[in-house]
Design a protein that fits this description.
By secondary structure, the protein is α+β, with helices and mostly antiparallel strands. The chain has 25 helices and 22 strands. The protein folds into 6 domains: 57 residues, Orthogonal Bundle (Helix Hairpins), CATH 1.10.287.610; 230 residues, DNA ligase/mRNA capping enzyme (D-amino Acid Aminotransferase, Chain A, domain 1, 2-Layer Sandwich), CATH 3.30.470; 98 residues, Nucleic acid-binding proteins (OB fold (Dihydrolipoamide Acetyltransferase, E2P)), CATH 2.40.50; 73 residues, DNA polymerase, domain 1 (Orthogonal Bundle); 71 residues, 5' to 3' exonuclease, C-terminal subdomain (DNA polymerase, domain 1), CATH 1.10.150.20; 70 residues, BRCT domain (Rossmann fold, 3-Layer(aba) Sandwich), CATH 3.40.50.10190. A hairpin with a 2-residue loop joins β13 and β14. The longest helix is centred in the first third of the chain and has 28 residues. The two termini are 45 Å apart. The structure holds 2-(butylsulfanyl)adenosine. The site of 2-(butylsulfanyl)adenosine has 15 residues, from β3, β8 and β11.
Length: 674
């Protein structure tokens, strides 16, 4: 065996080992909720895998843990027919219905069988079928009409809780069924972000999950924190387990996620009813939405004996929970103006308690929604809490109208500054056009000083209000012009408080580029994209000069984001603002240079087809961190950054003993600079 073969053998076995480790830790984390390593350690393993694969593209297989996000958007979802129909469930609504269900089964089975039931939470998400062949995930489909669904494999693969490869004693072929859903905390966070950006919010986690799974570009699905819980099978090769409980346990053993902790066995229908009541109480504390309880006969043999009707099995039933609805009155409507000028209507309600939570306002989303509901001030309405803390109005009770109700017209002027309000084509939300709208400025200041942005400690709502009232701040840069004497005009402002605030403002000048980019509040640039952009470009100047094509060539950046950045930098007011920031000593580019003595004097060579940044960007990153980029490898070269397909330069670097970095390792090196 030659030296090269031996090296390749070593690489191959390291790659196999890494894949196994990552699959295993994924399983511990997602299926069992019992991680054994830190997130940082997991990231380290993943980075190593990515770097091995970048150097050896031949090693990449479709079930590698690195291959979750597909790169090419689809044009449509192909139809996917189900080998056995995906049935739905008959509904029950109370204890009486459950007793009827039990009696029906006993009649059908003739003998008074000793029935055992399994009680599962009825997850409120989207049903999917996952097909595994020899343990590999080969296809995923939605339910559709139960006979034919849509193939959404690309999107399902992005869900970290879905194993790409089963483990243990899995059967040769298996079709698993389960519910994809989003946990409440993640849903609320996403809605909050949308609300802040003035984008329409989602009514409930189910709608958001369904929307996320229907993205033709899997990158978008990957950005939504979805998860899955499996509750059954379509087909299985070999001998299936004898009870439903054993089946669920086996699924879990094979690496699939099952919400086993909330699933309970019941010896008779009395125990089922007891569990139904318990689960209804538990519902308020669960981290995800459930809309009922599914009752299933545990014995698979009896399930087969009972069989199914045209669309529903006889051996299972869904006992629904009452919707968390109440009736109240819309007393008035207030208009909120967000950071981007988005004007959103919010209904002030006569306070009412909805399953233990007092509710006094409801989001109306936008005027299309008001029209759809045909809502007026004074109307009696049915509101529902479904995942979001802020409830939705589901219906107007028209019978209760007295004739005194008032319409809710779309505003022509901003309720705060009086500037015209305009709705762009294709948008559902009108926005205030006023450049100096205090409401916009207030929200912009709140965002600018928040954690993750410039993180100015002590600059809260109350102080921002006073700064605006006293006209001390008319744009973001004015914060850095504040003097001690200005602050003494404030109510309850002592010397210590003033000094602390000025110091916090001063310290914020040192924040890294990613914080500054996020703080600027550019549309569609959240903290994640800000980090990505700052990694890619290294300086604000480089980002400002980036062309649309250059932006679009970056993984995760689509046309909307590229457009938003181009528009932001094209605006002369924004450019002026950025210049003022620099004059005032806020220049994150200089900042990162100041910290980067570790790259000082180091010589880098880039080779191969780089995927995460262009060669020019890589070189300017090196330079902005004090290093030097060169076109050829020599004894003086310190690092070679090699992408896929690297050839002679990489060979030469190996001979000369130059340190070899993957793109990810290079970016990590720069990160450590901070
Ligand atoms: S069993 C033949 N179990 O409810 C059995 N379904 O109306 C079919 N669902 O389409 C489904 N949690 O999307 C089952 N623990 C659970 C479930 C569950 C949620 C959904 C599923 C199905 C619908 C039935």
């Amino acid at each position: 065996m030659s030296e090269t073969d031996r090296t390749f053998d070593r690489i191959q076995s390291e790659h196999r080992e890494l894949c196994q480790q990552l699959h295993h830790h994924n399983y511990l984390y997602h299926a069992l909720d019992r991680p054994e390593i830190s997130d940082a350690e997991y990231d380290r393993l993943m980075q190593r895998l990515l770097s091995l694969e970048a150097d050896n593209p031949g090693l990449v297989t479709s079930d590698s843990p690195s291959q979750r996000v597909g790169t090419t958007p689809l044009s449509h979802f192909p139809p996917a027919s189900h080998a056995s129909p995906m049935l739905s469930l008959e509904n029950a609504f109370n204890a009486e219905d459950l007793i009827d269900f039990d009696a029906r089964i006993k009649r059908f089975l003739a003998d008074d069988a000793n029935l055992e039931y399994l009680c599962e939470p009825k997850l409120d998400g989207v049903a999917v079928a996952l097909t595994y062949q020899k343990g590999k995930l080969i296809r995923s489909a939605t339910r559709g009409d139960g006979i034919i669904g849509e193939e959404i494999t690309q999107n399902i693969r992005t869900i970290a809780a879905v194993p790409l490869q089963l483990q243990g004693d899995f059967p040769e072929s298996l079709e698993v069924r389960g519910e994809v859903y989003m946990e409440l905390e993640a849903f609320r966070k996403l809605n909050l972000q949308r609300r802040e950006k003035g984008e329409p919010t989602y009514a409930n986690p189910r709608n958001l999950t369904a929307g996320s799974l229907r993205q033709l570009d899997a990158k978008l699905t990957a950005s939504r924190p979805l998860t899955i819980s499996c509750y059954g099978i379509g087909n299985i090769s070999g001998k299936p387990p004898t009870t439903h409980q054993k089946l669920l346990e086996a699924l879990r053993r094979w690496g699939l996620r099952v919400n086993i902790e909330t699933i309970k066995r019941a010896k008779n229908i009395r125990e089922v009813i007891k569990r139904y009541n318990e689960l209804q109480q538990l519902r308020e504390q669960l981290p995800y939405e459930i809309d009922g309880m599914v009752v299933k006969i545990n014995s698979r043999e009896l399930q087969l004996e009972l069989g199914e009707k045209s669309r529903t099995p006889r051996w299972a039933i869904a006992c629904k929970f009452p919707a968390r609805q109440e009736t109240t009155i819309v007393e008035s409507v207030r208009l909120q103006v967000g950071r981007t000028g988005a004007v959103t209507p919010v209904a002030n309600l006569k306070p009412v308690s909805v399953s233990g939570v007092t509710v006094s306002s409801a989001s109306l989303h936008n005027w299309d929604e008001i029209t759809r509901l045909d809502l007026m001030v004074g109307d009696t309405v049915i509101i529902e809490r479904a995942g979001d803390v802020i409830p939705d109005i589901v219906k107007v009770v028209k019978d209760k109208r007295s004739g005194k109700e008032q319409p809710i017209p779309e505003p022509k002027h901003c309720p705060i500054c009086g500037s015209p309000v305009k709705r762009e084509t294709g948008e559902v939300i009108p926005r205030c056009q006023g450049l100096n709208c205090p409401a916009k400025l207030k929200e912009a200041l709140k965002h600018f000083s928040s954690r993750g942005a410039m993180d100015i400690e002590g600059l809260g709502d109350r102080l921002i209000d006073q700064l605006l009232r006293l006209n001390l701040v008319t744009n973001l840069t004015d914060l850095y012009r504040l003097q001690r004497r200005d602050l003494f005009q404030f109510e309850r402002m002592g010397e210590k408080l003033a000094d602390n605030l000025l110091q916090a403002i001063e310290i914020s000048k040192q924040r890294p580029l990613e914080n500054f980019l996020f703080a600027l509040g550019i549309r569609h640039i959240g903290s994640h994209l800000a980090k990505l952009l700052s990694r890619q470009f290294g300086s604000l100047k480089a980002l400002e000069q980036a062309s649309r094509e250059e932006l679009l060539s970056i993984h995760e950046i689509g046309p909307q984001v590229a457009e938003s950045l181009i528009n932001f930098f094209a605006d002369s007011n924004n450019r002026k603002l950025l210049e003022e920031f620099v004059e005032l000593g806020i220049n994150p580019q200089t900042e990162s240079q100041g910290n980067s003595d570790r790259l000082k004097g180091k010589i880098f060579v880039f080779t191969g087809s780089l995927e995460q940044f262009s060669r020019k960007e890589g070189e300017s990153l090196v330079e902005s961190h004090g290093g030097r980029a060169s076109g050829s490898v020599s004894k003086k070269t310190d690092y070679i950054v090699a992408g896929p397909g690297a050839g002679s330069k990489l060979e030469k670097a190996k001979q000369l003993g130059v340190s070899i970095l993957s793109e990810a390792e290079f970016l990590d090196l720069i990160e450590q600079e901070r």
